[in-house]
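in:
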């Protein structure tokens, strides 16, 4: 690959009901200062909030930037595939719209890794105020922080692939697109990792994180968790070996234990959910609720 191609970067940001102008400004400033061939494509996936759409429209005013509006929601996988097709440069950098750029050399660190085909930079958890530290999403992500370090991710590189901050060669992405059968929240990046492993594509994990600084309300996070668990249940056969929850469930070989967990969820799941959605959520209850919710879904699907 030529040096010129190694300095080409399409930055791809899917957005839904979120303003990401500051994120784009930070990325645009770094790309301009590096003097590389670049473009920033922001695809609005059928947002319903007119104020977000109006604010993000300003992105069109920046050089090499485009704001692409979709009239209807395509889904997390399809919008990312759409961005890849719309891109024109050799490497794609996917960044989630609710992430923050926290390093002044964020883009140059990625460029120094080329010509690697897939590079995952990771995330770092940052609360902007004390109120955020009480939120269930923050507490959960903080408890997982050690797993975000590159040396840990590299131990199971395909299972730790995340599109919040991912560099990938464009031709590779077009050859192995995200699975568009996944329309709802969760696991489209996990299935991509499985596909890359099947095709023996190496993944490099580095510590070049974006900031995870925006945390939804407890009720919204629980709803998102439930949506992700429904996705996991639907695609459980394909995700086997790529989900810690599936591995845990598969390791429970005594039917009576599974029955007891489902019974507990039927009796106390609503109480657990009230706690998780309230002002003092217990992280230990969150893990128990996830397990009970999943096993209940599984029982209904399998009969």
């Amino acid at each position: 690959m030529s040096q010129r191609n190694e300095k080409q970067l399409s930055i791809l940001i899917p957005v839904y009901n979120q303003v990401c102008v500051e994120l784009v400004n930070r990325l645009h400033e770094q790309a301009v200062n590096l003097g590389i061939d670049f473009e920033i494509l922001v695809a609005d996936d059928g947002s319903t909030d007119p104020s977000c759409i109006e604010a993000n429209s300003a992105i069109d005013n920046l050089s090499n930037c485009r704001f692409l509006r979709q009239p209807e929601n395509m889904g997390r996988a399809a919008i990312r595939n759409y961005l890849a097709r719309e891109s024109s440069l050799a490497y794609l950098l996917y960044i989630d719209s609710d992430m923050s750029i926290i390093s002044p050399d964020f883009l140059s660190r990625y460029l120094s890794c080329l010509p690697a085909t897939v590079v995952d930079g990771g995330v770092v958890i940052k609360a902007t105020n004390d109120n955020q530290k009480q939120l269930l999403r923050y507490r959960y992500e903080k408890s997982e922080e050690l797993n975000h370090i590159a040396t840990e991710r590299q131990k199971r590189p395909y299972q730790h692939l995340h599109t919040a901050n991912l560099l990938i060669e464009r031709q590779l992405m077009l050859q192995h697109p995200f699975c568009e059968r996944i329309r709802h929240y969760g696991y489209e990046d996990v299935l991509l990792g499985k596909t890359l492993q099947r095709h023996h594509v190496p993944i490099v994990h580095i510590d070049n994180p974006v900031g995870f600084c925006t945390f939804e309300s407890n009720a919204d996070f629980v709803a998102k968790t439930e949506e992700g668990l429904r996705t996991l249940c639907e695609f459980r056969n394909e995700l086997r070996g790529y989900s810690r929850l599936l591995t845990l469930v598969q390791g429970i070989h005594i039917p009576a234990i599974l029955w007891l967990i489902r019974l507990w969820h039927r009796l106390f799941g609503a109480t657990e959910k009230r706690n998780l959605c309230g002002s003092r959520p217990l992280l230990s209850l969150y893990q128990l609720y996830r397990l009970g919710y999943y096993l209940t879904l599984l029982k209904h699907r399998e009969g």
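note: The chain has two domains: 3-212, 218-302.
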